[in-house]
Amino acid sequence: MPKLMIVVGSVREGRIGPVIAEWVRKTAEADGRFDIDVADLAEIDLPMMDEPNHPRMKQYTKPHTIAWSERVEAADAFVFAFPEYNYSYSGAFKNALDYLVSEWNRKPVALVNWGGNSGGTRAQTAIRPVLAALGLVATKGSIEINFPQQQIADGVFTPNEQQASVVQLQLDELITLDEALHPLR
User: Fold this and answer.
1) What is the per-residue pLDDT across 130-147, written as a single tens digit (0 to 9) for each?
2) How far apart are the first and last CA of the chain?
3) Which residues are paired to 112 by β-bridges?
4) Taking a C-beta distance cutoff of 8 angstroms, is the pair 115, 41 a contact?
5) E strands of the chain, at which residues?
6) What was the pLDDT predicted at 106?
7) pLDDT tens across 82-124, in order?
8) Pairing between strand 156-157 and 108-115?
9) Which residue ranges form the domains of the chain, and what is each CATH number?
10) CB atoms < 10 A from the CB of 35, how many?
């Protein structure tokens, strides 16, 4: 069973990322084809890059980097759940990506974004070159949630029909891509 890591890509106080990631986790859990790991960047609390060596060398010196490397290395596929911040994605998320290089390579990723009018589209546009540089392969389908607070009640995100359908398509494609990419890793 492939290991799916759901990364919560925001760390600020009052964020809704964990609520949306929980919806993705429950959906993936109900799907039954994944071993699931939720990586909340607020809990992981990586400092700004503090390693003396380039990540491509994998000569990590800090316990937090070694733990992050092992966790990402163990994953076969990812769902990145992150908001749009000022037409892009959060600095904490970029930092978490930049800590590592080879651990991401040739692994599939699905994107779940949210924001105001754009629904996170600009954050997806900003992150796609970074995904390509790291060797991550994005699913075709992506989720963009406009004004997600309107879909949250009592701490639970309730997807609309399109979002529920697309997340299932993403899970299907993560399986297909993992099967294709796994032998290349």
Assistant:
1) 999 999 999 998 999 999
2) 16
3) 81, 143
4) no
5) 3-8, 35-40, 77-83, 108-115, 137-138, 143-146, 152-153, 156-157
6) 98
7) 999 999 999 999 999 999 999 999 999 999 999 999 899 999 9
8) unpaired
9) 3-184 (3.40.50.360)
10) 14
Quick one: which of 27, 7, 31, 15 has its CA closest to 111? 7
Question: Which residue intervals of the chain are DSSP H helices?
Answer: 17-31, 41-44, 63-74, 91-98, 121-134, 161-181
Centre a 10 Å sphere on the Cβ of residue 104 and count the other Cβ atoms it contains. Answer: 20
The shares of helix, strand and coil residues in the chain, as percent rounded to the nearest 5, are 45, 20, 35
**90: nearest Cα among 8, 174, 183:** 8
Task: Assign 45 to helix, strand or coil.
Answer: coil
| Predicted local distance difference test score (pLDDT) of residue 168 | 97
The pLDDT, as a whole number, for residue 159 is: 97
Task: List phi, psi (to 5°) of 86.
Answer: 50, 50
The pLDDT confidence band at residue 8, using thresholds 50, 70 and 90, is very high
Using CA atoms, how far apart are residues 171 and 178, in angstroms rounded to an integer?
11
Q: How far apart are CA 46 and CA 82, in angstroms?
A: 16
CA pair distance 128, 112, nearest whole angstrom: 13
